[in-house]
Design brief:
This protein has about 400 residues and is an alpha+beta fold. It folds into two domains: about 5-310, 2-Layer Sandwich (BirA Bifunctional Protein, domain 2); about 320-410, Anticodon-binding domain (Rossmann fold), CATH 3.40.50. It is built from eleven helices and 23 strands.
Length: about 400
């Protein structure tokens, strides 16, 4: 992609209301545009990042047995009345249809859709277990949408629902999902600061689990066990003054961002909708359910909060919008030639061919945060050399043009 034709542009300043780092850098870097509080347009580079995170999550959900579907965002009031949540969920968007006069909701979650759906597909023990997920835009009427992509009114989320014959089967899958979530966080570059966190189980079970990423920008407070690195949400610290894993009382208070949560729903929703299966003897049982949520767009914001410096974003290579940022400094003919070679070799390249000063191009490159920067200048071209710099490192390297592809494939 030539930067001169890129739809989005970098900005020097953002609104004074932009308090969070991810909001400031994503807007300035040309990744997102804020339409209103808690609602964003994902511009070309931002959309590429979002899709890369989405694809990593999708692959891991399929690996653990998930089958992908897409459920409606528009949901009937009747389903929410069955579960008793129509009047109790305070962030549920509700409206009345102008033509049918029926009351509707725009989905913040999908238990009220997936459970009755399962009644059409699951009948006996032979149909179980089943693991169904979607990646879909959710809507929540947040009282105060803030912190950029970390708390929005419209956001992209993965939610997977498990259907099991027994609590033991549910427990085993739940434990496996913890490992999968940790694998995802490792792939996207935030694992070192992300902790499994015990949280309230609500009406479902004693505990649920969150995954919390440590950052000063976080709006949550957790207590991290210094011994085993498991954490406790502030909401249950009064009742749980020691680590639930190792029973250590050496806990450290930190600020964090919730980047995932998982619940053992057990039979709460299957009972509401009478979702049952028949065993080998023809006896009917309620199906055990679990719910596994992960905010795709929130992960994007969290990565920026964790992976940045004073100059801009430092994207992990697995989710970066491009592999390489190629910068031409008064050497367009040679730069175009190298640009075509890089594309032919399979690299995704952002080519800064704009008529801007070298300083401006370097500042934008640091702001955008693509992992590898290659500079072509008249002086370097004369000696058949190029400059390569990793965004995460301070010093560039000068190498021969003929060694460029070998260097890139090795690094």
């Amino acid at each position: 992609m030539k930067q001169s034709i890129l739809f989005s542009k970098t900005r020097k300043e953002v609104s004074a209301e932009s308090e969070s780092i991810n909001h400031q850098l994503l807007v300035r870097g040309g990744f997102v545009n804020q339409l209103m509080s808690g609602v964003y347009t994902y511009l070309p580079m931002g959309f590429k990042v979002l899709k890369k995170i989405e694809n990593i999550v999708r692959e891991e959900m399929e690996e653990i047995g998930g089958q992908e579907i897409l459920m409606p965002a528009l949901q009937p009031k009747e389903n929410w009345e069955i579960t008793g949540r129509w009047d109790t969920m305070d962030d549920l968007f509700k409206f009345t249809s102008f033509y049918s006069k029926t009351d509707l909701a725009i989905g913040p979650t999908h238990e009220e859709v997936i459970t009755p759906l399962a009644k059409h597909q699951i009948f006996s023990y032979k149909d179980l277990p089943k693991y169904i997920f979607q990646i879909q835009t959710k809507f929540r009427d947040e009282e105060r949408a803030k912190s950029g992509l970390l708390r929005g009114r419209e956001f992209l989320m993965k939610d997977l629902y498990s259907f099991n014959t027994s609590e033991k089967e549910l427990d085993d899958y739940y434990d496996g999902m913890i490992k999968v979530y940790n694998k995802i966080y490792k792939q996207i570059g935030i694992a070192d600061k992300t902790y499994l966190t015990f949280a309230p189980g609500g009406t479902f079970s004693k505990y649920s689990h969150e995954f919390q990423t440590e950052t000063p920008a976080g709006e949550d407070i957790i207590y991290l066990c210094k011994k085993c690195k498991v954490a406790i949400n502030k909401e249950i610290i009064d009742e749980q003054k020691v680590c639930p894993e190792c029973e250590s009382s050496d806990l450290k208070e930190i600020k964090s961002i919730e980047v995932g949560n998982i619940f053992k729903l057990k039979t709460k929703f299957s009972q509401s909708f009478n979702l049952t299966y028949t065993d080998k003897n023809g006896k009917s049982h309620l199906i055990q359910m679990g719910c596994y949520g992960l905010g795709i767009s929130r992960l994007m914001g969290t990565i920026v909060e964790v992976c940045h410096d004073e100059r801009g974003i430092i994207w992990p290579k697995e989710v970066a919008p491009f592999d390489i940022h190629l910068i031409s400094i008064s050497e367009d003919e040679k730069s175009n030639k190298i640009y075509e070679i890089l594309k032919k070799e399979g690299f995704d390249v952002l080519f800064d061919d704009r008529e801007e000063s070298a300083g401006s191009k370097f500042k934008d490159a640091d702001l955008i945060g693509i992992p590898t920067r290659i500079v072509i200048s008249s002086k370097l071209a004369k000696d058949k050399k190029v400059e390569i710099k990793k965004r995460s490192e301070s010093d560039p390297e000068i190498i021969n043009e003929e060694d460029l592809i070998k260097y890139l494939k090795r690094s």
